[in-house]
Amino acid sequence: MPDLAGLLVFPFFLVFARLGAAVMVFPAISDPSVSVRIRLLIALAVSAVMFPLVQAQLPPLPAHSGDMVLMMFGELVIGVLMGYGARVFMAAMSLAGELIGFMAGFQAATLFDPTSGSSTAAPTILLTLCAGLLMLVLGLHYELIKAVAASYSAFPPGQLPDVGDVTSAVVQIYGQMFSLGLQLAAPVVVAGLLTNALFGVMNRLIPQLQVFFVSIPLAIGLSLIVLGASLGTMLELWSGTVAGKISVFQVESTL
Description:
Blueprint: H1 4-25, H2 36-54, H3 65-104, E1 110-113, E2 118-121, H4 122-137, H5 140-154, H6 163-205, H7 211-243
Antiparallel strand pairs: 1-2
Helix pairs in contact: 1-2, 1-3, 3-4, 3-6, 3-7, 6-7
């Protein structure tokens, strides 16, 4: 009688550990508003589809339980890192939203953010919701699945990625995140700086003018106009950047 645990059960759970960990941290799918059961069903379904594709690259059942636990732990670590890149680039949208909210005067205008489960600035909620929707519409979640499938050639089960390479990749992707966040918020930030400079000059020229009460509504209105005019370009820049860097490892699929 064939050993089902060694031939099917253990290899399947290796696939499920890596892919499930990536799904659990991937943006949009991992939002608190999405039920954990739904995420679990998605991970199980995709693992069942991927299993025949990578079955030949999976190792047999280890003889010792300690080796099996270490191997499962390594799969979880690789899966989390695979989905971490998209999560970091989602933070670029949050950074841009916070900068826009600060320059537009929305510091006190906080709303409940379903993507993080906390209260945050209104522009941040708008941008993160648009980014999550855009990620699903453009099929970027499929790119994550392809990257996970291709990662079995670069990182076979039981072989953890080099710590130095992971550290370098994380530092690089964080630098790109901050750079992208500043680029996304640049139109509103520049408009806010020019508006503040203009009212600073007017305060010197007309001391009787109540600059604070005049500048706040104008700054908010101008920031909203600039945000509305540049929103399409912001989303295009964000999606174009994320599409080629969906995972920390940037594994290219050959499937």
